[in-house]
């Protein structure tokens, strides 16, 4: 078995970022394993006219190494569309274009291995390495990074998926015919908004009726204010990690709309589309917005679904007959079976989640010289930015700095504009010496 310095399990954007930054490091061997036969990024969610919520400059590498060949700007140049792109004056890019960028980067990397289904990860005490077993091979690594993503989240009342009841992540793979159907979208975030608008416009045929159910009390806008974006900075992540657990939980709830809200552009597009159909064209309203409701029961009928809804504000119960129901209800943490040999060595939270350090290593009772890292698994520890693309390149560099003996990336920043934590030893009126923004 060849021993690698670093093995990543799962090739999504986060591990792809690590692979891109690690490629140019001499003497640092890396390998990234993926069960799928080729790279793909949420193929079932590539619905038309949907845009990213983060800037294209927050790509795989630019925040750390802008001259890296895997930058989005180099992608534009290599695809011969640099000038056309500039003329569009886009602040963000479509999901389709960002997915194409990721596929382009993956195709140019030589440290990726596909069709490798990881079956077991264990630790060899004698050799001082992790052992990673797939259906085809066996590998050794000094460090391992989990980047398998999350599992789909469905209400407990959904027993099985079908062509009439499924998660939004499968929309483009199922491509159902919605013409003349009663359709219900459940979930009040960006994915729910994107689906509602496309269905309203007849992307899969003109539905007879369209309902949009959300647990939230309204269809809330994404908080994109300048100071809200300070949550998506390395300084804030470090500061957040030092808070007490109950304070972190409170802050995450307060900051939810900075990541889970709906873009103003999408909300306006939906409102204008409904205004045009029902006020200008004077159609009898066939689309209905139903906030403050949870789906408590799904009953399959001959060719339809009966949904039982509970209203949060008055505890009323409603029933809704629909032909097709699509759950845009997000994702939940995944607990891979291949970690079973290490389960007794991992330190978990009371919610059975990884305890993740600020260098994205997982707390375990093994030697300090071998680390198990996890990406998109530590929002409870590190804050609202942890599962987002905003800090992708910085996160990748920080992980490499921990795994590499020479910490090759310089990640210091200028002081932030907000002083997040108290510093009682300093006089706030003494402005001649700038305050530090983080405490360690």
TrEMBL record:
Q: Name one GO molecular function term.
A: monooxygenase activity
Residues annotated as transmembrane: none
Instruction: Respond yes or no to whether keyword Transmembrane helix is given for this record.
Output: no
The cross-references to Pfam families, in alphabetical order and at most eight, read: Lys_Orn_oxgnase
Question: Which InterPro entries does this entry report, sorted A to Z?
Answer: FAD/NAD-bd_sf, Lys/Orn_oxygenase
Which key words are in the record?
A: FAD, Flavoprotein, Monooxygenase, NADP, Oxidoreductase
Gene3D superfamilies linked to this entry? FAD/NAD(P)-binding domain
Does the keyword field hold NADP?
yes
Cite the annotated pathway: Siderophore biosynthesis
The cofactor(s) it depends on are: FAD
The UniProt entry's sequence similarity note says: Belongs to the lysine N(6)-hydroxylase/L-ornithine N(5)-oxygenase family.
The record's listing under PANTHER family reads: L-ORNITHINE N(5)-MONOOXYGENASE (PTHR42802:SF1), MONOOXYGENASE (PTHR42802)
Q: What is this protein called?
A: Lysine 6-monooxygenase
- Taxonomic lineage of this organism? Bacteria, Pseudomonadati, Pseudomonadota, Gammaproteobacteria, Enterobacterales
């Amino acid at each position: 078995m060849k021993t690698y310095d670093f093995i990543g399990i799962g090739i999504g954007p986060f591990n792809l970022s690590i692979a891109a930054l690690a490629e140019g490091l001499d003497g640092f061997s890396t390998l990234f394993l993926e069960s799928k036969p080729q790279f793909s990024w949420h193929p079932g969610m590539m619905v038309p006219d949907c845009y990213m919520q983060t800037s294209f400059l927050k790509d795989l590498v630019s925040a750390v190494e802008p001259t890296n060949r895997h930058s989005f700007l180099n992608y534009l140049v290599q695809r011969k569309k640099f000038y056309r792109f500039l003329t569009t004056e886009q602040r963000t890019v479509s999901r389709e274009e960002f997915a194409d960028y990721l596929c382009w980067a993956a195709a140019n990397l030589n440290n990726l291995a596909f069709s490798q289904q990881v079956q077991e990860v264990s630790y060899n005490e004698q050799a001082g390495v992790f052992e990673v077993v797939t259906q085809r091979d066996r590998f050794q690594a000094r460090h391992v990074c989990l980047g398998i993503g999350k599992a789909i989240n469905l209400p407990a009342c959904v027993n099985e998926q079908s062509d009439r009841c499924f998660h939004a992540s499968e929309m483009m793979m199922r491509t159902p015919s919605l013409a003349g159907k009663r359709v219900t979208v459940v979930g009040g975030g960006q994915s729910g908004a994107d689906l509602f608008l496309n269905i309203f416009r007849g992307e899969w045929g003109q539905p007879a009726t369209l309902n949009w159910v959300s647990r939230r009390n309204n269809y809330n806008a994404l908080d994109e204010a300048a100071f809200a974006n300070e949550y998506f900075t390395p300084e804030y992540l470090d500061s957040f990690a030092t808070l007490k657990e109950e304070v972190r939980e409170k802050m995450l709830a307060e900051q939810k709309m900075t990541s889970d809200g709906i873009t103003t552009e999408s909300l306006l597009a939906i409102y204008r589309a409904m205004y045009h159909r029902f006020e200008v064209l004077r159609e009898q309203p066939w689309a209905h917005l139903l906030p403050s409701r949870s789906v408590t029961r799904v009953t399959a009928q001959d060719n339809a679904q009966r949904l039982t809804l509970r209203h949060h504000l008055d505890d009323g119960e409603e029933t809704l007959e629909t032909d097709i129901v699509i759950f845009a209800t997000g994702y939940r943490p995944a607990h891979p079976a291949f970690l079973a040999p290490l389960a007794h060595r991992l330190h978990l939270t009371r919610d059975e989640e990884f305890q993740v350090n600020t260098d994205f290593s997982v707390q375990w009772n093994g030697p300090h010289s071998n680390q198990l890292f996890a990406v998109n698994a530590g929002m409870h520890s590190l804050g609202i930015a942890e599962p987002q693309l905003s800090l992708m390149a910085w996160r990748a560099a920080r992980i490499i700095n921990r795994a590499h003996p020479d910490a090759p990336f310089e990640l210091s920043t200028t002081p932030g504009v907000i002083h997040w934590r108290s510093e009682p030893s300093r006089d706030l009126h003494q402005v001649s010496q700038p305050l530090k923004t983080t405490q360690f």
